[in-house]
């Protein structure tokens, strides 16, 4: 059975590795194509947008895709909405694979905000030295709080950089552990962190470091998922679901 994995996350890579050399599942991994040097597995890849819902529906039909897994980032709302609509339009069964959101524990001082505009607004009255880890594509909102010292960490350089007078740019790719995050915060005298509630272990070290440092965390909440698409957190469970779909496809009617 042909499988399409909408990828770009640790979970997508984990699922892809489970499907390498599989006897009944022939998976193709789809990347948006924005990150230079994306991490890859041995599965075949395609890269770049499909051209909206219709383009994705055409792709599913043309490639006789029997099941689709939306393993994109929890904040990649556009592609998830398109995937749900294309699945409905074509009748291709789909499933989302998503890491659980982070939950606060004792000692955490998290301030939930709905989006980056709200984060920048809240920053006006909180903190002076800000560590930003919300991605390179959405830095313009911080221009609404211009009088801060920003330390902006992204995987690839922001293009173009935002209009911030006092900003340090760091390019680095996780995973980041608690010790290295604590060292980064100490080096730059960070007194507030802004991050998305991405979930997962690879980047949660900054939350632990912030708690130990006693600083607040502005946590951008996840956008709502499209209705009607079941969500799994475990790549192994998604592989089982795909195997069941493949078996059902080949069962005599
Ligand atoms: P988005 O706003 O949801 O997607 C914008 C457009 O990019 C989509 O409409 C689609 O174009 C194309 N696209 C996105 N993911 C794709 C994929 N896996 N394969 C083919 N086309 C894709 O997404 P985004 O926030 O720009 O994120 C882009 C990718 O980076 C996603 O795959 C996501 O998992 C990954 N990522 C995002 C974040 C984040 O914080 N947003 C963080 C880490 C990784 P068409 O309409 O032309 O099909």
Summary tags:
253 residues, alpha/beta, 6-stranded parallel sheet, 7 helices, 21% strand, elongated, binds NADP nicotinamide-adenine-dinucleotide phosphate
What does this entry show, briefly?
The protein has helices at 10-19, 52-62, 77-90, 116-123, 178-188, 205-213, 235-250; strands spanning 2-6, 26-31, 45-47, 65-70, 94-97, 110-113, 129-132, 149-154, 167-171, 192-196, 217-220, 231-232. It has 253 residues and is of the alpha/beta class. Helix 1 packs across helix 7, helix 2 crosses helix 3 (77-90) and helix 5 (178-188) crosses helix 6 (205-213).
Chain-wise SSE layout:
Blueprint: E1 2-6, H1 10-19, E2 26-31, E3 45-47, H2 52-62, E4 65-70, H3 77-90, E5 94-97, E6 110-113, H4 116-123, E7 129-132, E8 149-154, E9 167-171, H5 178-188, E10 192-196, H6 205-213, E11 217-220, E12 231-232, H7 235-250
Parallel strand pairs: 1-2, 1-4, 2-3, 4-5, 5-12, 6-11, 7-8, 7-10, 8-9, 10-11
Helix pairs in contact: 1-7, 2-3, 5-6
Bound molecules: NADP nicotinamide-adenine-dinucleotide phosphate.
């Amino acid at each position: 059975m042909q499988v399409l994995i909408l990828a770009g996350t640790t979970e997508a890579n984990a699922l892809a590795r489970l499907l390498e050399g599989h006897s009944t599942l022939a998976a193709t991994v789809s990347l948006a194509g924005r990150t230079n040097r994306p991490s890859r597995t041995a599965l075949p890849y395609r890269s770049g947008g499909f051209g909206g819902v219709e383009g994705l529906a055409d792709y599913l039909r043309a490639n006789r895709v029997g099941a689709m897994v939306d393993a994109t980032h929890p904040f990649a709302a556009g592609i998830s909405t398109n995937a749900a609509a294309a699945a409905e339009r074509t009748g291709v069964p789909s499933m989302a694979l998503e890491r659980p959101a982070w939950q606060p524990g004792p000692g955490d001082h998290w301030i939930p905000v709905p989006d980056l505009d709200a984060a920048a607004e809240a920053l006006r009255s909180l903190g002076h030295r800000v560590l930003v880890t919300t991605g390179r594509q959405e830095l313009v909102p911080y221009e609404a709080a211009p009088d801060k010292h920003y330390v902006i960490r992204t995987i690839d350089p922001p293009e173009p950089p935002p209009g911030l007078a006092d900003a340090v740019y760091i390019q680095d790719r996780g995973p980041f552990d608690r010790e290295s995050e604590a060292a980064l915060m100490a080096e730059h005298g960070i007194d507030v962190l802004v991050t998305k509630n991405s979930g997962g272990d690879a980047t949660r070290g900054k939350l632990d470091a912030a708690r130990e440092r006693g600083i607040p965390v502005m946590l951008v909440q996840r956008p709502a998922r499209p209705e009607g698409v079941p969500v799994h957190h475990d790549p192994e469970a998604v592989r089982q679901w795909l195997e069941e779909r493949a078996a059902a496809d080949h069962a005599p009617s």
